[in-house]
Amino acid sequence: MRVSSIRILPLMVPSSSPVHIATICIVYRNNRQEIVWLRRGQGEFMGGQHVPPGGKFEAGERGEECVTREINEEINHSLENVTLKGIVRFDNRERDFGEGIVKPDWMVWVYTANSSSPERVDGGSTHWQWVNRADFSKLNIQPGDDILFDWVENREGIFSGIIQYKGKAVA
């Protein structure tokens, strides 16, 4: 494949706090009418919250390799049409996770893909579920993930951005 042009996305990486580098994927099925979400257990970090699947890069991985591996590990699904949508930094320097918990910032490569696996979501001991668009408002989603999903659905091309938290809300 020949690349005719490359667009560099400027991103500010904080120097004062550690940064996790990861991928997440909005995984669709049924003509983009359903998306798979993890509902974290009550005893887990961010218990009761719904989050999209993804995870940290391993040494030497490209983004597509990371997201494909993570989706296979987390929900045992194969992906089709894996597409980079953007890169986002979640700025957690002033975020309140409660009980004195401090978490690092995240630099996240955001992908979309279609599930090419059977209907069932196999997440082992996790709580994965397909959610219809009509039911999104019922989910307990982090404010930043709500913004991120809007960017994925409504922005053209590849986006970059920073989602900054102040307390429990997005600043």
Q: How would you portray this structure in words?
A:
With 171 residues, the protein is mainly beta. Helix content is 15%, strand content 39%. It has 2 helices and 9 strands; from the N terminus they run E-E-E-E-H-E-E-E-H-E-E. Strands 1, 2, 3, 4, 5, 6, 7, 8 and 9 form a 9-stranded mixed beta sheet that branches. Strand 1 and strand 2 form a beta hairpin. The longest helix has 13 residues.
Total number of beta strands: 9
Shape: globular
Which stretches of 5+ consecutive residues score pLDDT under 50? 1-14
Query: What value does the average pLDDT take?
Result: 80
At a glance:
With 171 residues, the protein is mainly β. The protein is built from 2 helices and 9 strands, in the order E-E-E-E-H-E-E-E-H-E-E. The longest helix has 13 residues, at 63-75.
Secondary structure: elements and pairs:
Layout: E1 19-29, E2 34-39, E3 50-51, E4 54-56, H1 63-75, E5 79-95, E6 105-115, E7 128-132, H2 143-154, E8 159-167, E9 169-170
Primary descriptors:
mainly beta; 9-stranded mixed β-sheet; 9 strands; 171 residues; globular
